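Posting this for the archive.
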Amino acid sequence: MSDSLSDLLRHAELQIIQFDVHRRDEMKTLNRTLPFYVMSYLKSGSAKLRIDGEEMELEPGTVAFIPPNVAHDHYKDTSDPTEFLWWHFTFEIEGVMDVMNMFQIPFVFHLQDHVYFEKVFMEFMESADARMHSLPRSILTRAKSLELLYIILNSALRQKNAQKDVAKSDVFLDMLTRVVQSPEEPLTLQQMADELHMHPTYVSNRFKELFGKSPLQVQREMRIQKAKTLLETSDLSVTEISQRLGYSELQNFTRLFKSYVGIAPTQFRELNRKWRVSK
């Protein structure tokens, strides 16, 4: 793993939204679209996954891996008992960059060590039991969730064509790391292109191809995330926050913030304070 990718992952957060173990004789989930990743491991029995008209067989030891906002059918056409271990999750950098989008993970693949995965999944479920909540258990739950992600990625990225050529694009990884770590830096697309000795259009298109968003889009969204954090946690004025984020004109910052959040920075701060008082 390159140093840039390691630096980026320090900013990434794994969020487990739902998880469970299901045992079913029947299943018919059709045309479902979810705003997060679906990982469904088939422990026993059989099922099918259909995406864009392509039907894929699921057998014991395989994972169905479905990205956000991808319409899919997940169903059974036999009556044999089937057991699934599943979880829904996101893995993002500062709530802006989807880490998983850096790879071309197949919709269906075999786990390299399914016994290990099943063991860790049950340990994760036990540690996540809300009835026994404590700080040590929270730490253990986080560790087990990352271990599960490691097992999944370790198997998925061994599949043919699973990895994009991100690893071969260190200059773009360096650029992404720079934007993520210092979004307030007054860096324009032309400056990026000049530094890389490439055409601005190529830089923007290539960056988006690798990471799903253009460099300026990442920069803007990172600034908005930082602004929201400062509005929530600091006593800095809106003007001071806008200057800290690289805006010389308050009006430009306010307009951008409102276009992303839907309300002005002052309104966002007021609503956040009211919400905290009411808790």
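The beta strands are 12-24, 28-32, 37-44, 47-51, 54-58, 62-66, 72-75, 82-93, 97-98, 108-110. Residues 166-278 form a domain with the Arc Repressor Mutant, subunit A fold (CATH 1.10.10.60).
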